[in-house]
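Lecture notes, continued. The same structure-token format from the folding unit now serves as the input rather than the output. Read the line below as a description of shape only.
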């Protein structure tokens, strides 16, 4: 931690955060442009911290080239220490963690959300694997659902509005389920597997063989299951958009459509879904921006008040 007159300004940290999201996730960057300026900058700041933690955990550069790290305990300790310092309002000296310091102070972000995200990275460092579907959802909460909660606060949602935060969490879980379906092959190369062991047993996979060519048709079945679950959580998340300001709802609905397309492409790809990394084109992103505009205008008609589906997994409330 450091002080002094040469500290980077908020504008400089925002500029660095913008570069991070523009290079790390074109889908999220495009959606963020639909926010008003203040919300957009805060979304970039939050993303920069999440991206930096993720890169530390996965040995990546802006989400690319996943690899095992040689010093997981040291990285986790550093991540926790810098996050805690940022939440305490201290200048960290790392632009991504100083981005968290700024956005947390400006929005009143509950500190427990940041700690819950770090817990997700601990699971990865410990080479944790889900045994059950419930385990899978718990992991998705820690690495993505809680980011949805934080984004909701960035968009102006009251940190105590649990129902709206649950819907935001649902969108993060939907995104992560699509991520897992898309990245099964990449994760396998890094020695990771996020498919529940119960699912693998049910499909009669030999241990550690789920990526082998003779079993691709079975793997395609599980990928479709993941994408189907993602669709359920995406639908639930959309029901929360009437509680958001128009531009925030527009951005959320655009992101839901863009990311949903990734999962749908994996499902439709069948056994060939992992021949190349699935992504969405610029034209497809633009199409969702246009469609989401209409959905946001009529969101109260499209998504009338309704209780959240009680069969969906629910994040811990504290």
């Amino acid at each position: 931690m450091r002080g002094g007159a040469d500290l980077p300004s908020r504008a400089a940290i925002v500029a660095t955060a913008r570069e991070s999201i523009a290079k790390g996730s074109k889908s999220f960057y495009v959606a963020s442009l639909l926010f008003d300026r203040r919300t957009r900058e805060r979304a970039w700041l939050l993303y920069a911290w999440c991206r930096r933690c993720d890169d530390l955990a996965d040995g990546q550069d802006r989400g690319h080239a996943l690899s095992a790290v040689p010093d997981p305990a040291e990285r986790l300790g550093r991540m926790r220490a810098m996050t805690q310092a940022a939440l305490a309002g201290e200048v960290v000296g790392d632009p991504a963690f100083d981005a968290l310091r700024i956005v947390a102070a400006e929005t009143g972000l509950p500190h427990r959300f940041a700690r819950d995200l770090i817990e997700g990275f601990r699971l990865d460092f410990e080479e944790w694997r889900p045994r059950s579907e419930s385990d899978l959802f718990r992991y998705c909460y820690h690495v993505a659902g809680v980011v949805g909660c934080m984004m909701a606060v960035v968009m102006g949602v009251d940190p105590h509005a649990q129902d709206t935060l649950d819907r935001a969490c649902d969108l993060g879980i939907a995104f992560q389920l699509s991520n897992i379906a898309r990245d099964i092959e990449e994760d396998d190369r890094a020695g990771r597997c996020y498919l529940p062991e119960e699912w693998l047993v049910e499909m009669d996979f030999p241990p550690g063989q789920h990526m082998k060519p003779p079993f691709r048709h079975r793997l395609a079945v599980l990928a479709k299951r993941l994408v189907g679950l993602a669709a359920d959580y995406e639908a639930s998340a959309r029901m929360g958009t009437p509680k958001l300001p128009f531009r925030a709802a527009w951005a959320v609905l655009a992101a839901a459509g863009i990311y949903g397309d990734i999962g749908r492409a994996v499902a439709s790809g069948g056994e060939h879904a992992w021949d190349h990394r699935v992504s969405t084109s610029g034209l497809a992103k633009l199409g969702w921006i246009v469609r989401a505009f209409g959905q946001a205008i009529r969101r109260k008609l499209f998504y009338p008040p309704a209780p959240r589906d009680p069969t969906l997994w629910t994040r811990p409330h504290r």
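Point for the exam: Residues 246-269 form the longest helix (24 residues).
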